[in-house]
Amino acid sequence: MSKPTLDQLITNPSCMDDYDPNSMPVEKARQFIKQFLEPITATETLNLRDSLGRILATDILSPANVPNYDNSAMDGYAFSATDLTTTELKVIGTAFAGKAFNGAVNSGECVRIMTGAVMPQGTDTVVIQEKISRNGDYIKMTEAPKPRANVRYTGEDLQLGQTVLNNGHFIRPADLGLLASLGIGEVNVYRKLKVAFFSTGDELVGVGQPLANGQVYDSNRYTLYGMLAKLGVEIIDLGAIADDRNMLEHTLLNAAEIADVVITSGGVSVGEADYMKELLSQHGQVMFWKIAMKPGRPLAYGKISKAHYFGLPGNPVAVMVTFYQFVRDALLRLMGQREIMPLPTFTVECTAPIKKLSGRTEFQRGILFHDENGIWKVKPTGSQGSAILSSMSLANCFIVLDVAVSNLDAGAMVQVQVMDGLV
Ligand code: AMP
Ligand code: MG
Question: What are phi and psi for residue 323, nearest 5 degrees?
Fold first, then answer.
């Protein structure tokens, strides 16, 4: 059976097993979104350094053996393993990194050799300089190495023609070095994903403006900017838009025109001034969920013409939680990344009691720390309201509490998920 389109799912949600828009489990929503994510295909070629943080658009095959000659791994003396039992070896020259010893080495002879120097002809073993005694032109080994010891062999790191990095690989500092070690100076990567976002709400005021009673500063555009910047997408900030149907409509359609992904915050629940739902059903195919999670209950996902749309809740903590739990993975996939590392999650002891209602997944804010014995533990940041943005600033992890979990006593083992940017 071919997979249902977004349109079919919206008009006939039963296409989706167990679909319940009023208590959508977190994992189900993730899987649902995933099926509509087609990675971008356009690529560009960049200088090696500029490719940091971008996604490779081709497989990289090794154009050479690395290393491409046998060389010494240590400072010492190179000789043939057949001479391991010879009591004295004559030093007939010196080999430096970048300055080889060009003669041949015969039985009973050795060459003084530095780390990285080409192994002279006739040698296959190095004794390190700490394990010999030298007398004029002769050395005696105080401790014999194993045959072929202390040598880095041709192709030991990478072999000619071997696949080194795969299409879809996220380029990290180690990869820059690896590519440089192959002599590769230019890299083909996927073009940057364009992400447009705007805030919605009559109460929002931009930083730098005076704040009247009943107004709040628009912080969501700053957290979104930060999280998007870390992902390395092209950011299009469309500002804070008042709860005005025409202005929202204009901004939304413009965003879908100029970006691959549109993210909004606020206005996706069912308040009087929440126009987003109406606009989206008019101009796109968008599903509205009440996710069984806290914070971040209302969430919308869909398409407006070719653009993907994420409608995040307005509450500042909910914006960050839904971004990390849904948007981050989706963006990485759209950016072309093939194997997406989830945020590292592990189990530690929680040092304080936790209040939790069963029936929903909670992402409480926590501080991972190591105690006096060096053991990692977590403590909650305190008040867990979804408007308390200071809890996100204090936190370095989410305490992820599954649907079935309810109140926990101090000392309980809990799952923590390290926040992006810390690793
Ligand atoms: P809404 O989802 O639009 O009902 O908003 C929920 C709560 O989040 C309200 O208290 C809003 O004032 C607040 N809020 C919405 N957008 C922002 C924003 N961009 N920055 C800070 N707070 C916001
Ligand atoms: Mg609002």
Answer: -60, -50
Q: Tokens 């900030």 appear where?
A: 237
Which residues keep their CB under 5 angstroms from ion ligand 2?
201, 266-267, 314
Strand pairing class (298-304; 307-312): antiparallel
pTM exceeds cut of 0.70: yes
Q: Tell me the average pLDDT across 189-193.
A: 98
* Cα 366 to ligand 2 centre (Å): 27
Angle, vertex CA 351, rays to CA 346 and CA 357, nearest 5: 75
Q: What is the pLDDT of residues 129-166, one digit of tens each?
A: 999 999 999 999 999 999 999 999 999 999 999 999 99
CB count within 10 Å of CB 304 equals 21
Q: In whole angstroms, what is the distance from residue 14 CA to residue 124 CA?
A: 70
C-beta 199 within 6 A of ligand 1: yes
Mean pLDDT of 191-209: 96
Rounded-to-integer distance, Cα 325 and Cα 330, Å:
9
Residue type, 85: T
> pLDDT (tens digit, 9 = 90+) per residue, 254-294?
999 999 999 999 988 766 667 888 899 899 999 888 999 99
185, amino acid identity: G
Mutate to test the pocket of ligand 1, among 198, 221, 241, 265 (most ligand atoms within 8 A of CB): 265
16-32 tens-digit pLDDT? 656 677 788 999 999 99
Binding site membership of 201 for ligand 1 (Cβ less than 6 Å): yes
How far away, in angstroms, is 277 Cα from ligand 2 center? 12
CA atoms within 13 A on the CB side of 68: 10
